[in-house]
Design brief:
The chain is α/β, with parallel strands linked by helices. 32% of the residues lie in helices and 22% in strands. It has helices at residues 5-9, 60-65, 79-88, 93-107, 127-131, 179-189, 218-224, 239-255, 258-267, 280-285, 303-309, and strands at residues 21-24, 27-30, 40-44, 47-50, 112-117, 135-141, 150-152, 164-170, 190-201, 228-237, 289-296. An 11-stranded mixed beta sheet has the order 1-2-3-4-7-6-5-8-9-11-10, with helices on both faces. The longest helix is centred in the last third of the chain and has 17 residues, at 239-255. It is globular and about 60 Å long.
């Protein structure tokens, strides 16, 4: 379940100085010794905006002008549109399996804190985390929604170190300029042996326009999380899913129409089900996306070890 705003406030820190924050009028103000005057941050409809704009792709003027809402249109699906959405984008078996493993681990702790990076909406397959009574979810994104506790840039997470039992970062790392810095921040805010679950595109086309920057092979994704002990990793969407997305973008380009792309995707939605018969090693080499489940470690995967890690069929 989502934590309360007051529960979140005690964990918040200044993204510039790392110091604690207190509410002063309609702002949060940093408390420790540092720059004079101390940094302060606006609060929009109860949601703090904790961004060091000097080190972000976001600008204060744009965020405040939108009142913290998303710069990207995020459609909501209902009725027939929702049914079509589920048809072309069913829940991935790997996500279901990995989230269940994560929930089972957290349930053994009795009560736990989980941070959702990019939590403006409930990610595909993540509902069990939101529904579990002993899991407290803390969520942020670069825009506000009914699910976010604060607005922040993941490169500088405004949170106390060693605070969370797990971090979920699904379909986010492709949208940050410096993924390694974000992963380092995830390591920092996790408690010792805390878990991270990440899903990131590999062979998926650009989405969210100007806010899309990076892709990872399965091996590259593993090395990104080199300061974590591997629990499991692999393809989160295989060549069949990747083929469907390619048909979408091929049709978009040929006919200069997003609607044509959607029609092509609907026509070929069945190709993603071929992933069920593709061996894991072949799926890794042609994956639409990859996943990593690991635990915070004090040892680091060495460059030579990543060669032995390769899981593909070549």
């Amino acid at each position: 379940m989502l934590a309360s705003q007051s529960e979140c406030l005690e964990l918040l820190r200044c993204p510039r100085t790392g110091s604690a924050l207190i509410r002063v009028g309609d702002k949060l103000v940093a408390q420790a010794d540092g720059p004079k005057p101390p940094p302060d941050y606006p609060v929009i409809d109860g949601i703090p905006v904790l961004i060091d704009f000097a080190n972000s792709v976001l600008t204060e003027e744009e965020v405040l002008a939108r009142a913290g809402t998303s710069a990207i249109e995020r459609p909501r699906y209902s009725g027939a549109a929702a049914r079509v959405k589920r048809l072309v984008s069913p829940q991935k078996a790997s996500t279901r399996r990995n989230v269940q493993q994560l929930v089972s681990h957290l349930a053994r702790l009795g009560s736990s804190r989980v941070l959702v990076v990019g939590g403006g909406s409930v990610g595909q397959g993540m509902a069990p985390l939101y529904e579990h009574p002993s899991i407290k979810l803390f969520s942020f994104d670069i825009y506000r929604s009914e699910l976010t506790h604060f607005i922040a840039d993941a490169h500088q997470m405004p949170l106390a170190s060693d605070s969370f039992d797990a971090v979920v970062v699904q379909a986010v790392l492709e949208h940050v300029l410096q993924p390694q810095q974000v992963v380092n921040e995830i390591w920092r805010v996790l408690k010792p042996s805390g878990l991270v679950y990440a899903e990131t595109p590999f062979m998926q086309q650009v989405h969210e326009g100007a806010y899309d920057f990076t892709r990872f092979t399965e091996s590259g994704h593993r090395y990104l999380f080199r300061d974590f002990e591997l629990i499991s990793s692999g393809a989160s969407g295989g060549p069949g899913l990747q083929f469907m997305w390619s048909a979408d973008y091929l049709a978009r380009g040929v006919f200069r129409s997003a609607k044509a792309g959607k029609a092509a995707k609907l026509l070929l939605f069945w190709t993603q089900y071929l992933d069920r018969i593709i061996p894991a090693e072949f799926a890794v080499d042609g994956a639409s996306g990859v996943y990593f489940l690991g635990a915070k470690s004090t040892s680091r995967l060495q460059p030579s070890e990543i060669i032995r890690h390769y899981k593909g069929a070549q």
